Amino acid sequence: MAVVPYKGESKGKKEQVAHMFNNISKKYDLLNHLLSLGIDIIWRKKAIALLKKDQPKYLLDIATGTGDFAIEALSLRPDKVVGVDISEGMLAVGKEKIKRKGLQDVIELQQGDSENLQFGDDSFDAVIVSFGVRNFENLEAGLAEMLRVLRPGGRVVIIEFSKPRRFPFKQLYNFYFQTILPKIGKLISKDRSAYTYLPESVQEFPDGDRFLNILSDLGYKQTRCKPLTFGISSIYTAIK
């Protein structure tokens, strides 16, 4: 059974995730940087740096949220970055941020389902995702859609939480992630379930070699995994 944010509801994971992010959208950026101690900013920079040699001109940012990864991708000097997200609330915050920065000409945010993308085959030079694939209702369907819209030879770069495995960091991390983080998240976001769902969904996610195997089975080539910060998260790369 899939891990969902609101266990008492009958709605599917996709609808629940959209509702959850709508609820926390106004506090999301604050909590993201606070709970990661700002390390998430460094992770995004490292992920985007892996695309520099490719010089992609048209990028798709899946589960773009409030647009931080799309904005970071501008260091590549692309012609266009399109961000897609299922949450209207997150997109509203992202659009305001992009307008404030004067980036409307190069970044376009739109509502959409990552598992049913409204783009043609081979549309993008690169596809990027920051902490989004874990929230797919159907992981394989979402990854297959990303592969479909990626041009041949294009690269996908995915950042996702993973599970540290070395003592004592594993134990310290688990205590923080399962005990401290949900309390801070609930206090600030006022959503009782969102930051309980986070560690549960990370625990459920097939990280490391298991995720690389899924990518390979779907047809991705040259799959790689780069652990970050003692394995708290990982950057996955692959090409079409």
Task: Give descriptors for this structure.
240 residues, alpha/beta
Describe this structure in words.
The protein has about 240 residues and is α/β, with parallel strands linked by helices. It has eight helices and seven strands; from the N terminus they run ααβαβαββαβαααββ. The protein has helices at about 15-35, 40-50, 70, 90-100, 140-150, 170-190, 195-205, 210-220, and strands at about 60, 80-85, 105-110, 125-130, 150-160, 220-230, 235-240. It has a seven-stranded mixed beta sheet with strand order 3-2-1-4-5-7-6, with helices on both faces. Helix 1 (about 15-35) packs across helix 4, helix 1 (about 15-35) packs across helix 6 and helix 6 runs antiparallel to helix 7. The two termini are about 30 Å apart. About 40% of the residues are buried. The model has no long low-confidence stretch (mean pLDDT about 90).
Q: Summarize this, please?
A:
This protein starts with 12 loop residues before the first helix and ends with a strand. It has 8 helices and 7 strands, in the order ααβαβαββαβαααββ.
Topology at a glance:
Blueprint: H1 13-35, H2 39-49, E1 58-62, H3 68-72, E2 80-85, H4 88-101, E3 107-111, E4 124-130, H5 139-149, E5 150-161, H6 169-189, H7 194-204, H8 209-218, E6 221-228, E7 233-239
Parallel strand pairs: 1-2, 1-4, 2-3, 4-5
Antiparallel strand pairs: 5-7, 6-7
Helix pairs in contact: 1-4, 1-6, 6-7
